[in-house]
Automatic annotation (TrEMBL):
This is NAD(P)-dependent dehydrogenase (Short-subunit alcohol dehydrogenase family). PANTHER family: PEROXISOMAL 2,4-DIENOYL-COA REDUCTASE, PEROXISOMAL 2,4-DIENOYL-COA REDUCTASE [(3E)-ENOYL-COA-PRODUCING]. Keywords: NADP, Oxidoreductase. It comes from the Bacteria. GO terms for biological process: fatty acid catabolic process. One of its GO terms (molecular function) is 2,4-dienoyl-CoA reductase (NADPH) activity. Coiled coil: none annotated.
Length: 290
């Protein structure tokens, strides 16, 4: 099936050293696996070292190459700086940072404690900012070029109820992406973002569609193309954006959601629920013959 096929040519990321935050699970893992297949070396980071070690082992068996697992809570600047030092000690110059780590859950906002709200803000906005600043300062000091790719969501610009801390934080990450794309371009540092629609992962599905919510709110039904995303489709886009083929793409957010967010936004898009017979009746009432 073409959706599950890699798109870039073999070796497209050869010689690139890439850090993937949240790289032990879900979409971070899928993107990392494809980077590895294309010749990159990886550092995968998150809080759970055991998960990272297992993932790194499995990735290297299947795809070969080098995968270094490093524990790092992106909320803690000391851990971020130590991770950056370890990563550069292992691999030398880092060429790409994929800011993918996130935390999220659904809840009416008025039910959230201050700590609950801050926890998501801290992982997503503060965490991404800390990793970005640590990498960017070092690249600038060493006169090295670099690439940031930040994973946001489409509600970074629409907003969304019931995931308000995540929406606020992802909006901040998008602003960070666009701002630094301009400010740091003079240092040869590019910044882009991807806004995925629904892509099934254990992490997201268990937190955003718990219990029988998945049955009641099938995410595929909200997507005009009628399905959720395949991980390889996202990996193809991510690989392009961290490759030198996208050198002229800077400050962009690329949406990959089958048209989902626009469906919600277009004033009359829900008229697809009107049956053909009703359109026939409306045609007849204005005198059009069948
Ligand atoms: C309300 C909640 C909650 C929930 C936790 N809290 N879960 N409040 N509803 N479902 C509250 C806790 O009570 C606590 O507040 C505070 O949040 C911190 O909780 P901890 O469990 O101590 O935090 P921590 O161990 O740091 O875990 C962080 C986490 C967890 C975000 C709560 O879910 C996590 O580890 N997530 C990482 C992975 C993840 O979320 N992946 C999904 C990304 S999907 P109090 O006041 O009690 O101390 C995504 C998709 C977006 O972003 C778009 C989809 C289309
Ligand atoms: P996931 O598997 O839960 O990924 C989140 C990762 O972040 C985990 O590996 C987690 O690992 C790590 N993480 C969480 N808190 C951290 C912290 N404080 N420090 C370091 N790492 C931390 O979920 P996913 O669906 O693949 O999500 C990946 C990205 O895609 C996220 O940015 C998410 O917002 C975005 N996204 C997903 C979807 C979707 O439909 N799946 C849609 C839009 C956007 P540990 O628990 O080991 O720390």
């Amino acid at each position: 099936m073409i959706l599950a096929e890699g798109m870039l040519k073999p070796g497209a990321l050869k010689g690139k050293n890439i850090i993937v935050t949240g790289g032990g699970t879900g979409l971070g893992r899928s993107m990392g696996e494809y980077f590895l297949e294309l010749g990159a070396n990886l550092v995968i980071t998150s809080r759970k070292l055991d998960v990272l070690q297992e993932t790194a082992k499995e990735m290297m068996v299947v795809k070969g190459g080098k995968v270094i697992p490093l524990a790092c809570d992106v909320r803690e600047i000391d851990q971020v700086e130590a991770m950056w030092k370890d990563a550069t000690d292992h691999l030398g110059q880092i060429h790409v940072v994929l800011n993918n780590a996130a935390g999220n859950f659904i809840s009416p906002t008025e039910r959230l404690s201050t700590n609950a709200f801050n926890t998501v803000l801290d992982i997503v906005l503060k965490g991404t900012s800390q990793v970005t600043l640590t990498a960017g300062k070092d690249w600038i000091a060493k006169k090295q070029t670099g690439i940031f790719l930040n994973i946001v969501t489409t509600y970074a610009w629409t907003g969304s109820g019931y995931v308000v801390p995540s929406a606020a934080a992802k909006a901040g990450v998008l602003a960070l992406t666009r701002s630094l794309a301009v400010e740091w371009a003079k240092y040869g540092i590019r910044s882009n973002a991807i806004a995925p629609g629904p892509f099934p992962t254990e992490g997201a599905w268990s937190r955003l569609l718990p219990g029988d919510l998945l049955k009641k709110f099938d995410p595929a039904k909200k997507v005009p193309v009628g399905r959720v995303g395949e991980h390889q489709e996202l990996a193809n886009l991510a690989a392009y954006l961290v490759s030198d083929y996208s050198s002229y793409v800077n400050g962009e957010v690329m949406t990959i959601d089958g048209g989902e967010w626009l469906k919600g936004a277009g004033e009359f898009n829900n008229l697809d629920q009107i049956p053909e017979e009703m359109w026939d009746m409306m045609d007849a009432s204005r005198g059009k013959k069948a």
